[in-house]
Amino acid sequence: MTDVTLSATDIRILQALQKDAAISNVQLAEMVGMSPSPCLRRVKQLEASGVIKRQVALLDRKKLGFGVLATIQVRLQSHTEQGAEDFARAMNDLPEILSCWAMTGRQDFLLVSVARDIESFGDFVTHQLLSMPNVRDVQSSLVLKEYKNLTAIPLPKGV
């Protein structure tokens, strides 16, 4: 893991893009006190360095009919490196899985999943997850109310 040195201007650009990545380069340059061409070059440098991984639209899952949000803890039967990699690769192929992390502790993986309703969530867990060859068991928790769900990384203040 390599830390990247960011200038005050880089931080202002990143703060603005984390709030609204759809902002035009002209608007961004004005917000950070630069002219458009150098600002665009800075953004491209931040992308090339991997600091900006990608730009996406954040969608409202409820408005799109996904009323269930759940965390799922998964324990595997086999704890081999290949078994874990196979499971992680399988999660990448399931659109219901929003996030997948390998974990320390009793559970091997933590997943975040969406479903249209409780019945479809139950079907997903039963027919998709529990039917996978290396899955020992799963424990799920349904989100009752969302209080905070951010994607922004905290950046230094005072710039």
TrEMBL record:
Entry annotated with the keyword DNA-binding: yes
Gene Ontology biological process terms from the UniProt entry: regulation of DNA-templated transcription; response to amino acid
A molecular function GO annotation: sequence-specific DNA binding
Stored Gene3D superfamilies: 3.30.70.920, Winged helix-like DNA-binding domain superfamily/Winged helix DNA-binding domain (1.10.10.10)
Any Pfam family: AsnC_trans_reg
Keyword terms: DNA-binding, Transcription, Transcription regulation
Top-level taxon: Bacteria
Entry annotated with the keyword DNA-binding: yes
The protein's name: ArsR family transcriptional regulator
The species this protein was found in: Thalassospira tepidiphila MCCC 1A03514
